[in-house]
Specification:
This is Response regulator receiver protein. InterPro entries: CheY-like_superfamily (IPR011006), Sig_transdc_resp-reg_receiver (IPR001789), WalR-like (IPR039420). Helix 2 runs parallel beside helix 3. Helix 1 links the parallel strand 1 and strand 2. The protein is of the alpha/beta class. The longest helix is centred in the first third of the chain and has 13 residues. A five-stranded parallel beta sheet has the order 2-1-3-6-7, with helices on both faces. Strands 4-5 form a two-stranded antiparallel sheet.
């Protein structure tokens, strides 16, 4: 498989997914496994995402920008407070207004395995 484990850093392997579309979440989990990561938590809505972001141990996260019409920005702010790196995944073209820092990787949906691989690499370099 392309890139199998190529970018996995020993200090960043447990990933938290915030995605409201179950099929996309499953595809993302498979893609991450192909790259050598493991999904330790997943949340389909803002309420569960905030709880998991607060109470779960993970190394990095992938956030859908819009969760059934609600912004994932509160989750991003919580991750910033915890010092957890994350990537936005969106079909809207950009991270939500108010995101910090502005240099975060943004995956444009639909994305390919190689694009996910590059975004995860940027997180390990941050």
């Amino acid at each position: 498989m392309p890139g199998k484990g190529k970018w996995v850093d020993a200090n960043m392997k447990d990933i938290f997914i915030v995605e409201d579309d179950a099929l996309i979440a499953m595809l993302l989990e498979d893609m991450l496994a192909d790259l050598g990561y493991r999904v330790c938590a997943s949340a389909p809505d803002l309420e569960r995402a905030l709880a998991a972001a607060r109470d779960t141990e993970f190394d990095a996260a992938i956030l859908d920008v819009s969760l059934a019409g609600q912004s994932s920005l509160p989750v991003a702010k919580l991750l910033d407070e915890r010092g957890k790196p994350y990537v936005y995944a969106t079909g809207y073209g950009a991270a939500p207004a108010g995101s910090s820092p502005s240099t975060l990787p943004v995956l444009q949906k639909p994305f390919q395995l190689s694009e996910l691989e590059q975004a995860m690499k940027r997180l390990t370099e941050a």
